[in-house]
Design goal:
- This protein is mostly beta strands.
- Strands 2, 4, 5, 6, 9, 10 and 11 form a 7-stranded mixed beta sheet that branches. A 4-stranded antiparallel beta sheet has the order 1-3-8-7, with no helix packed on it.
- The protein is globular and about 40 Å long.
């Protein structure tokens, strides 16, 4: 069983920054593609950013140029640096660890990000 734990959420004013972190247990972190998703009240969960085991990244259009995803395979962690935050970025952010070998998703419990104007 892989355990995924997010941290770093909080309340910030519009235009501010937050840095989310995600730690995943296990010995073969390099076999995982990782991603950040978010879910706002009354809305479906949506993809924010992903990073493959080869460090290829993908972003939701509305966060391009503002958010940066990165990974540290030695520490089994990924981060999401969020700059120029907007109220519409308010959501619960979830970390996803996707095992490429067995095609299994592992989700964290989520961390709340609230952006006020």
């Amino acid at each position: 069983q892989v355990h995924v734990v997010e941290s770093g959420g909080g309340l910030v004013q519009a235009g501010g920054s937050l840095r989310l972190s995600c730690a995943a247990s296990g010995r073969t972190f390099s076999n995982y593609a990782m991603g950040w998703f978010r879910q706002a009240p009354g809305k479906e969960r949506e993809l924010v950013a992903t990073i493959t085991n080869l460090n290829s990244t993908n972003y939701k259009d509305s966060v391009k140029g503002r958010f940066t995803i990165s990974r540290d395979n030695a520490k089994n962690t990924i981060t999401l640096q969020m700059n120029s935050l907007k109220p519409e970025d308010t959501a619960v952010y979830y970390c996803d660890a996707y095992n490429l070998l067995i095609r299994q998703h592992y989700w964290g419990q989520g961390t709340q990000v609230t952006v006020v104007s």
